[in-house]
Design goal:
The complex is a heterodimer of chains A (about 270) and B (about 650). The N and C termini of chain A lie close together (about 10 Å). In chain A, helix 4 runs parallel beside helix 7, helix 7 packs antiparallel against helix 10 and helix 11 runs antiparallel to helix 12. Helix content of chain A is about 75%, strand content about 0%. Chain A is mainly alpha-helical and about 270 residues long. Chain B has 3 domains: about 250 residues, Rossmann fold (3-Layer(aba) Sandwich), CATH 3.40.50.300; about 70 residues, no CATH class; about 240 residues, 3-Layer(aba) Sandwich (Rossmann fold), CATH 3.40.50. Chain B has 23 helices and 22 strands. In chain B, a hairpin with a 2-residue loop joins strand 16 and strand 17. In chain B, helix 4 runs parallel beside helix 7 and helix 16 runs parallel beside helix 19. The longest helix of chain B is centred in the N-terminal third of the chain and has 18 residues. The chains are: A mainly alpha (about 270), B alpha/beta (about 650).
């Protein structure tokens, strides 16, 4: 299985993702300039040897901000994905294993949440609770949980058709043991694929919410925020203020999706 | 080379990548002849069939030899000439008919297409006539239905009809009846035999089932690890095998009325060499109990005498091996106190009555064989006894005379411990995520309430009881062979010292040599642990070997129950007669018409619509219930003296 992973697409995606992970961990120490330091004498400078990606409206170095901008998005999106994976897996295992009325009730609830448009729900909740990284994480996790639960439920139902499940019941195992020790290890592959796919969507959603002003707040070097602050300047010919942040977001999403695709192929 | 043969294969070698699957296989199928290729799983029999048609999957490569079909050198044919050959001269029938038919197209349209491809006109009439030829009762109706609306047996008839549409010179059948019930299998084989006689089609029949192939074929070849070890007239090979492998394989079969009291079954030690293992010696030498020094150094030549070939340095009788004697006879007293009693069990799923009013009693230490075809309710009955499925209200279960709850949660731990099961398919029954040690430790910890050193000792003891070593304990199920996996499943069932073990077709997925070892193990464990078995199987020879009593089920009903010998020898129920004759084939008792679907409501005797001995209107009334005092009750209106015997 490991060998089947080593295909060009997967390796390319993994390289992109690892690059941004390193930037998120060590970014501020790697770049020469301080991403937060303004230079009011030198706003909107085009890319040059001193400022590789140019500067923004208040003269902050865009290269430093793009590199440092990996941290906010790569903390919120994975945290939201992890939270939704934990909740979604538990919910999916319970609905898949229990069947009967518990499954019926929880599954309808899941379908209700699935029916709501993601961004609208997120906006409503964030308007009510106020925008903060924690709230963004929780909202995205809330919206993604039913999607993961549905995948896990389907996989669990398929596993329950195998005889090792009644065999465990016959040797007096409780439902928790059967769900988490017997079934869970066997459905990890589809969960892993779902998680990577979700991570791609989470990154996209965090960037969208930040762009709309309900996500990560200034003066963070977040990419979505940078696009929101500067997109009016594109028409004026200051494309570098937006372009590099957009490119960074796109590359991360593409990288994660390539990894997801590679995993899916390898695990099938 | 034999130019007149329908198929002539010479020194055929096939590799997958660098792994040699077939080595120097030669055989000939004459026009109108039926040639059988037999062997256990992994011996290369399907590869031989695909290679003979030059239809190997992309990874497979013919590395040597020649194939002549119908006078043409198959290996020299161009791609388009090969397609012409496939389209017009050769047909193939596979194991699973539901996969060979397109589920979205009606049977008639598919069959007409088979004729249209050949440029035939009047395809509708020809298609209908073909369905009639394969003995489908109402061809006009079947033409208009979709494959899923037909039973497995009828589907296979349609596949055979399509295969015969082109009047092929050669028909290749790869396990054509393996998924079918015994009575249906018998009918399909009769049909193939009849068609061969009137169309003169040569048949290459591939199967793991040696007795079946020997019955069907004129000549057979026995494959072992990619080499043809014996070839000859079917009757000769069966009666006087010249290769020790064939001889051992035949003695592994629990046939000829053998009972467990007569002693253990022969087994073949060791296992098939890994595919591609190169050897200059006899391929069977490592497992042969009469191998001499020469066998381990020199490959034996093909020795032909009177059309009978074997690749062995010796001629039978083979030098005897020191430890070839069977175990001491398995005599064990069967107690008369019932351990498990089921009274008037019913289970209904919507309109389907999966189990109808079944009462059985199981004595401590006895084996009750449960026989019936698919849809007979055997597995549902097993689930009811285990508490995995709750029966309809009204019936009752007794364990040691005390009432037993309908579901697992309503039973005490001691009661849950008492009834265990060995599932049919160990791949499904063993959790692939866990190591064998975990799979064996958990039931000991949960059911026997052991911990610490006692638990570790008990686990080792349990593994030793089914002849698994410490090395196996660290493995995951995937790393074990089918036989070893089933041993793990058996050990697990025995972990809690059960009173009753339900064996649900425990050997049907295994090769005969492995089956024999598993049956010996089950018989030995029963002797040692004094446990009662409910042994579910469709293989009457296996049931006869193990069972003290046999119960026959049909569409959820119990038709008869009694001591094995009496049930099998008769006088017995007309349905039992059909089952017995399907297995032995002397004169076949045929069922009438299509077996009704499980949801179809039937008035009167459940079997009367298919009964070859139906008496008329009286059979439309329900036969009298079982008399509790009768040791061998039969639910039939026919007087006991007039019931059929084997």
């Amino acid at each position: 299985m490991i060998r089947r992973l080593f295909r060009p697409g997967f390796l390319f995606g993994l390289t992109i993702v690892l690059f941004w992970v390193i930037c998120a961990l060590f970014g501020p120490y790697l770049v020469p300039q301080n991403p937060y330091a303004d230079d009011l004498m030198n706003p909107l400078a085009p890319p040059s040897a001193a400022h590789w990606f140019g500067t923004d409206q208040i003269g902050r170095d865009i290269f430093a901000r793009v590199i440092a901008g990996a941290r906010p998005i790569l903390s919120v999106a994975p945290a939201a994905t992890l939270l939704s994976t934990i909740c979604g897996t538990a919910l999916g295992l319970i609905t898949g294993y229990a069947s009967g009325w518990l499954d019926a009730v929880l599954s309808r609830l899941i379908e209700v949440i699935l029916a709501l448009p993601l961004i609208v729900v997120a906006l409503v909740v964030l308007v009510a609770l106020g925008p903060s990284s924690l709230n963004v994480t929780v909202v995205i996790a809330l919206v993604f949980t039913p999607i993961i639960a549905r995948t896990v439920r389907a996989a669990t139902i398929a596993e329950c058709k195998l005889d090792y499940v009644p065999a465990a019941q016959l040797r007096d195992e409780g439902p928790l043991h059967i769900m988490f020790v017997e079934i869970l290890p066997n459905i990890l592959p589809p969960i892993l694929v779902e998680v990577t796919v979700r991570l791609g969507y989470a990154i996209f959603t965090v960037a969208s919410l930040s762009f709309l002003g309900f996500g990560i707040q200034p003066p963070s070097p977040d990419w979505g925020l940078a696009i929101a602050e500067n997109y009016g300047l594109i028409v004026g010919g200051y494309g570098w203020t937006v372009g590099f942040a957009a490119l960074a977001t796109a590359s991360l999403v593409v990288g994660v999706n390539l990894v997801a695709e590679g995993l899916q192929e390898a695990l099938q | 080379m034999d130019a007149s043969a329908a198929l002539d294969v010479r020194d055929l070698s096939v590799s997958y990548g660098k792994v040699a699957i077939l080595r120097g296989v030669s055989f000939t199928v004459a026009p109108g002849e039926c040639f059988g290729l037999v062997g256990e799983s992994g011996c290369g029999k399907s590869t031989a069939a695909f290679a003979a048609m030059r239809a190997l999957p992309p990874a497979g490569r013919i590395t040597g030899g020649s194939i002549t079909m119908d006078g043409r050198d198959v290996l020299a044919l161009s791609r388009s000439a090969l397609r012409q050959l496939w389209a017009r001269r050769v047909s193939m029938v596979y194991q699973d008919p539901s996969r060979a038919l397109n589920p979205t197209i009606t049977v008639g349209a598919q069959l007409m297409e088979a004729f249209a491809v050949l440029g035939e006109t009047d395809v509708l009439a020809r298609a209908e006539a073909m369905l009639a030829r394969v003995q489908i009762p109402s061809p006009a109706r079947v033409m208009g239905v979709y494959p899923h609306q037909l039973s497995g047996g009828t589907q296979q008839r349609v596949v055979i009809a399509m295969a015969l549409a082109k009047r092929p010179a050669l028909l290749v059948m790869d396990e054509p009846t393996t998924g079918l019930d015994a009575t249906v299998e018998a009918e399909i084989l009769d049909l193939v035999d009849m068609l061969r006689r009137d169309q003169g089609t040569a048949i290459l029949l591939i199967s793991h089932n040696l007795p079946m192939v020997a019955r069907m074929c004129d000549r057979i070849g026995v494959l072992y690890a990619g080499s043809l070890v014996e070839q000859g007239d079917a009757k000769d090979v069966l009666r006087a095998p010249r290769h020790p492998y064939t001889a051992r394989l035949l003695s592994c079969l629990p046939g000829g009325g053998r009972r467990k009291q007569d002693g253990a079954l022969q087994t073949i030690a060791g296992q098939l060499p890994a595919p591609g293992t190169a050897t200059t010696a006899c391929v069977f030498a490592p497992r042969c109990d009469c191998a001499q020094d020469i066998c381990r150094t020199t490959a034996p030549p093909e020795l032909w005498t009177q059309g009978h070939m074997a690749t062995c340095h010796f001629r039978p009788p083979f030098p005897a091996s020191p430890d070839a004697l069977p175990d001491a006879p398995a005599t064990m007293p069967v107690a008369t106190t019932p351990v498990l009693e089921a009274l008037n069990l019913n289970k209904t799923y919507g309109a389907v009555r999966a189990v109808r009013d079944i009462s059985i009693t199981l004595a401590a230490g006895e084996t009750l064989g449960l026989v019936g075809e698919s849809g007979s309710g055997k597995t549902t009955l097993a689930r009811l006894l285990l508490g995995l499925t709750a029966p309809d209200p009204g019936g009752s279960l007794l364990l040691d005379g005390k009432p037993l709850g309908p579901t697992l949660t309503s039973r005490s731990r001691a009661e849950r411990k008492a009834i265990q099961i060995i599932f049919q398919n160990p791949d499904s029954a063993l959790n692939r995520a866990h190591r064998i040690s975990h799979i064996l430790t958990r039931p000991l910890a949960r059911l026997a309430r052991l911990s610490g050193q006692k638990l570790a000792d008990a686990r080792t003891e349990l593994a030793k009881g089914v002849r698994l070593g410490d090395a196996h304990l660290a493995m995951r199920p995937r790393a074990l062979s089918g036989g070893l996996k089933q041993r793990v499943a058996i050990a697990r069932a025995f972990a809690g010292k059960p009173r009753v073990v339900i064996c649900d077709e425990p050997t049907s997925a295994l090769d005969v040599s492995v089956q024999a070892a598993i049956l010996n193990l089950l018989a030995g464990l029963q002797r040692r642990e004094q446990v009662a078995y409910i042994f579910i199987s469709h293989d009457l020879a296996v049931v006869r070997y193990l069972a003290d009593r046999i119960a026959v089920m049909y569409l959820g009903n119990l038709l008869e129950i009694g001591p094995s010998e009496e049930v099998l020898a008769g006088p017995h129920h007309p349905y039992t007669a059909a089952l017995v004759s399907a297995a032995t084939a002397a004169t076949r008792v045929r069922l009438r018409g299509e077996i009704p679907g499980p949801g179809e409501v039937q008035a009167g005797c459940i079997f009367h619509r298919n009964c070859p001995r139906s008496l008329g209107s009286i059979c439309e009334t329900v036969p009298p219930p079982f008399d509790a005092a009768d040791a061998h009750p039969i639910r039939c209106h026919i007087p006991r003296a007039e019931l059929p015997t084997a």
